[in-house]
Amino acid sequence: MTETTTAGRRTITGRIWLFGDDMNTDVIHPPSFFSLDPEKVKRGLFHGYDPDIQPNIQPDDIIVGGRNFGCGSSRETSIRAIKLNQIGAVIAVDFARIFFRNATNNGLPCLPLADPADLAKLTAGQRITVDPYAATLTTEDGETVTLEPPGEFVSEIWAAGGLLQMLPGSAKQ
Questions:
Q1: Per-residue pLDDT for 170 more than 80?
Q2: Beta-bridge mates of residue 4
Q3: What per-residue confidence (pLDDT) applies to 73?
Q4: Phi and psi (nearest 5°) for 15?
Q5: What are phi and psi of 79, to 5 degrees?
Q6: Residues 92-119, mean pLDDT to the nearest whole number
Q7: Phi, psi at 43, each rounded to 5°
Q8: Does a structural domain hold residue 170?
Q9: Is the residue at 171 inside a domain?
């Protein structure tokens, strides 16, 4: 369940899909699923890692990873697969810079944990609520985890639904 706040800003409530360190973009979305067909791209999410993940993802589920999430290639297919599966946000200890920029440009909130030790408080399948703009994550037990706050421009990109949506004359979604 997602709650829309002011100016397109929203909180995201979903289940955690938990991954470790160095989650590579080719593992997030294997090259064998590169396609212009959105359904094929969608099916490829984490397929080489575990083919049972993608069919079980629900809208607004949240990916949580360790260090260097999104390392590897600069191809945007991993972001496209995440967006097609309606993942609400990605939380990690830290991100590969190009993954972070690609995600931001496509309107996908990516937030680093303010304290990497907080990763131990999160478990696979746990329901959480993420407020990307307040930079907080709240567990179903009411525990709040602080995330690194995004800059104002990044927040504006997320709220717009992506960088292209901010261009004059673009069709707002």
A1: no
A2: 10
A3: 84
A4: -90, 150
A5: -65, -40
A6: 97
A7: -65, -25
A8: no
A9: no
- On whether the CB atoms of residues 19 and 99 are closer than 8 A, the answer is no
Q: What is the CA radius of gyration of the chain?
A: 15
Please choose, from the candidates 94, 99, 68, the residue with its C-alpha nearest in 3D space to the C-alpha of residue 82.
99
**What are the residues whose beta carbons fall under 8 Å from the beta carbon of 136, sequence distance 6 or more?**
130, 144, 145, 146, 147
- Residue range of the domain that includes 105: 2-163
Percentage of the residues of the chain whose pLDDT score is greater than 90: 88
**What backbone phi and psi angles, to 5 degrees, belong to 46?**
60, 20
Supply the angle between the helices 97-105 and 152-160 in degrees, to the nearest 10.
Answer: 50
State the CATH number of the domain containing residue 145: 3.20.19.10
Q: Is the full-model pTM beyond 0.85?
A: yes
Provide the number of structural domains found in the chain: 1
